[in-house]
Amino acid sequence: MWSVQQFLRQAQRGTEEKEREGALVSLRRGLQHPETQQTFIRLEGSMRTLVGLLTSNQALLQLEAARCLHELSHSEQSTVAEACLPATSYLLTYLSGHSSDFIELCLYTLGNLIVESEAVRRQLLPQGIVPALAACIQSPHVAVLEALGYALSQLLQAEEAPEKIIPPASASSSILASTLPQHMLQMLQPGPKLNPGVAVEFAWCLHYIICSQVSNPLLIGHGALSTLGLLLLDLAGAVQKTEDAGLELLACPVLRCLSNLLTEAAVETVGGQMQLRDERVVAALFILLQFFFQKQPSLLPEGLWLLNNLTANSPSFCTSLLSLDLIEPLLQLLPVSNVVSVMVLTVLCNVAEKGPAYCQRLWPGPLLPALLHTLAFSDTEVVGQSLELLHLLFLYQPEAVQVFLQQSGLQALERHQEEAQLQDRVYALQQTALQG
Amino acid sequence: MQLPPALCARLAAGPGAAEPLPVERDPAAGAAPFRFVARPVRFSREHQFFEDGDVQRHLYLQDVLMQVADVPEKPRVPAFACQVAGCCQVFDALDDYEHHYHTLHGNVCSFCKRAFPSGHLLDAHILEWHDSLFQILSERQDMYQCLVEGCTEKFKTSRDRKDHMVRMHLYPVDFRFDKPKKSRSPASAEAPGDSGERSEGEAMEICSEPVAASPAPAGERRIYRHRSVSELVLKPVLNMCLVLRILGCTWAAALLILNSER
């Protein structure tokens, strides 16, 4: 049984190249184990030797040395990641090479190291990781792009990213100052060139940038809303065609990006093209909601979040919900969970609060029976939102009051009249019902 | 969850926005105790709302990373040798050969045969080691460009440049791809294998091909002797153009370098 030290010595000084390569292969296998990783980093000169092999003129030794480094990068110990600091300038240098497999390996290694240690990130930024990654995005190789997306997503997820990595004003060329955002959006444009694995990574990158709320108007200016909107349509189309379970991996970040971007003031003030007005977005969203309902219910809240943001300030989208007959499908989601119920009721409130023309279209129909049902829930938030909706319905569609009374509505209200958060509203509705 | 049949047709049809129904709000709608206000919601990075989706993302990545770490069995082929003149390496897997080719023959200096990991570093090397025009210009202005991608700083000497890379970019002091040039003495020719600083791993600039007693003419090395003005200007231009043509560049690029003295 050879020790780490012996393998290293053989790799460094062996006479036959095959022997040296074999030693590194054995070392790599050993480095899959945490104890061996610890032994390695504690051994004096070990990283120096490995870096020497990484930069050697023998390509296969270089590759195996890079694989050893990659194994080390998997460690969850930040000390191991930090032990790899001497190698980072070389990993970055190799990103502008031409060997796509090697570049891919370096990117995954960098991505792993980035996650584990802030010290590594603090070194990588001045070493020029952002321009190096930006250069990689021109690669024609799908595997390289996917690896790049991964490394970038890890960088963007770092805690200090909103202050130090994303904003244009950052010292050492930031993400937003580079060409990365435009390229990322290009990778997300639907069409024959769209690669799902690559798109997933860049969609997550975009999500981390957007939810950091650093400079979203800039992204809107680059056409993010329309690109993501079209991608959503594309996803809905794909969902209808195949039973592919992987689509939610892309749908999730796309929904998040759209939802957050819609809260930007820039969306309102900029001229028509920048805004999202296309009714097909609502149709696509419902197709995705149905897909989530069947395959991944935990993503329903994210889909409904987008629906809320689409409908809150948009009479047009609220009208679409009515004209496309989407109220009933929406109500079918009520039983899923309390969180989903609250969101469904919120969206319905968005529609109802726009006035009588909207409430008339909600009446008669399944809405009132559904509300009587949700009033029976014990969750305060669900009941509270039901009360809000009922109030709007009574206000704009007074005929509903009679039917409410006939369907034992008052008894449903009475259940909650002791509840502190609900009693004022319960009382107000009771008064309205009795007067009506 | 049942969707109306017409929905798929709507998706397939062209873009369009619904003509909105008239909006008519009653002030009583928002009157206390009712508090509903329609508003878009924003969630920030750390919000708990993202937990479920984040977990799925994490699980997906675990799968991806495991696949990356798994080194596939290389498909073997009958042994073959590298076709580049002077290279005697033999391979039995195409991937190995591809990596070897890119590493050792991809970015090679035609003057001294050193191999570099990227075109960027090769270009810098040629300029700084093999271009007398560069040397002349560098006496008058800062010509040594920082090697870090994206940094536009230039320096008077390679030493200054190294200091900058170490201080500002946290590069290692012994960065393998920034070897200082040998000291300039009139008669010293530089042999490619002659690196007093060769480290144990054999720094990459040195080609693996066996270097016989080099018959390469001294003219390709940097040797200072008095030359006429036209020689000083013409020969480096021709050298540069030759190199650039090899690299696929145009006359325009050649002129760019000459124009660096405004």
TrEMBL record, chain A:
Cited SMART domains: ARM
UniProt xrefs under SUPFAM superfamilies: ARM repeat (SSF48371)
Superkingdom of the source species: Eukaryota
InterPro entries found in the cross-reference section: ARM-like (IPR011989), ARM-type_fold (IPR016024), Armadillo (IPR000225)
Name this polypeptide is given: Transmembrane and coiled-coil domains 6
Automatic annotation (TrEMBL), chain B:
Gene responsible for this protein: ZNF511
Entries under InterPro entries matching the protein: ZNF511, Znf_C2H2_sf, Znf_C2H2_type
Domain C2H2-type: 82-105, 109-130, 146-169
Protein's name in the database: Zinc finger protein 511
Gene3D superfamilies per the UniProt record, alphabetical: Classic Zinc Finger
Organism: Gorilla gorilla gorilla (Western lowland gorilla)
UniProt-annotated stretches for the region Disordered: 179-204
PROSITE patterns referenced in this protein's UniProt entry, alphabetically: ZINC_FINGER_C2H2_1
